[in-house]
Design goal:
The chain is of the alpha+beta class and about 140 residues long. It is about 40% helix and about 15% strand.
Length: about 140
């Protein structure tokens, strides 16, 4: 999502394009998936000081408006994802990182299968596929 698209999303939700929101988005564009701590650390490294609490509030607000999405790690740490389209995730349980997996065939198979299924008393709103993995010896520090 470009800066212009981001600003357009903010306008659509009547949110101001504050210096902090723009700075957080710039970091998220580079990181893709990140926790508030990770974004705060990167902002500090770049010379911009925004408290971790403010970063978390900004990220949460953007997720509430579905500009970003949320991911909960195996350590119960909230991660945010700049890509809010339907896609598959690979979660590295040792390094606590996320990667997007592009597998349209799998996504279409799952969607088609679940479209035919009914869950009594429930309406499926979303399908979230996440693979939990650990690195092979070759990729230990991936």
């Amino acid at each position: 999502m470009t800066q212009d698209e981001f600003r357009s999303h903010l306008r659509r939700h009547k949110l101001r394009a504050t210096r902090q929101r723009i700075a957080v988005h710039e970091v998220m564009m580079d990181l893709g998936h990140a926790s508030a701590d990770m974004v705060s650390e990167e902002l500090a490294r770049r010379g911009s000081h925004v408290t971790t609490a403010s970063v978390y509030n900004i990220l949460s607000q953007l997720a509430d408006y579905r500009i970003y999405s949320r991911r909960m790690s195996a350590t119960n740490k909230m991660f945010f994802d700049i890509n809010n389209t339907h896609h598959i995730h690979l979660y590295d349980r040792e390094n606590h990182t996320y990667r997007d997996l592009v597998d349209d065939e799998l996504q279409n198979l799952v969607n088609a299968h679940l479209k035919r299924r009914r869950f009594k008393g429930y309406t499926v709103e979303d399908i979230d596929i996440q693979f939990v993995a650990r690195p092979t010896r070759k990729n230990k520090n991936a």
